[in-house]
Structures are given as structure tokens and as C-alpha cells.
């Protein structure tokens, strides 16, 4: 994995109420879990953006359909 990150979310253990109850190993484990969840959510977000762009392009190009040139999902039937 590339070490350069597009953006970084910064938290301190002081930001979380119960973090004082964790020992060093538990904090390391929590950090690894966070990194896995973070990576997974970023991948989901990227895929959602790609799907939204594809859907938007399909809607914008709907009027070019020669079989049904009046199908306009974004503005109703025209």
C-alpha cells in the first residue's frame, strides 16, 4: 500500500471517554481495527461515487435514445 494518503483523520485517545481503560496492547488492537474499517469505508465511498456518476450520465444521456427520445428521468416526461 502506498504510504501517501489522500487525507488523514486525526484523533487522540483523549477524544474518547473510555480510552483510559485500555492498556497499550488494546489501544494498538483498536487502532488496527480502526484502520481496517476506515479503509473499507473509503473503498465503499469511492465505489458509491463511481456508481452515482454512471447513473447520472445515464440519466443525462437518456434523451439520446432513438427508440425513446422523450424519456427524461431527471425532468419528467417531456
Strand percent estimate: under 5%
What structural category characterises the helix and strand content? mainly alpha
Global shape: rod-shaped
Approximate helicity band = 40-55%
The Cα radius of gyration reads: 22 Å
Order of SSEs, N→C? H
Number of beta strands: 0
Low-confidence residue ranges: none
Count of discrete alpha- or pi-helical segments spanning 4 or more residues: 1
Mean pLDDT: 79
- The end-to-end span amounts to 49 Å
Main sheet characteristics? none
Task: Kindly describe this structure.
The protein is mainly α and 78 residues long. It contains one helix and no strands. The chain is rod-shaped.
Task: List the keywords.
78 residues, mainly alpha, rod-shaped
Which SSEs are present, and which pair or pack?
Blueprint lengths: L23 H37 L18
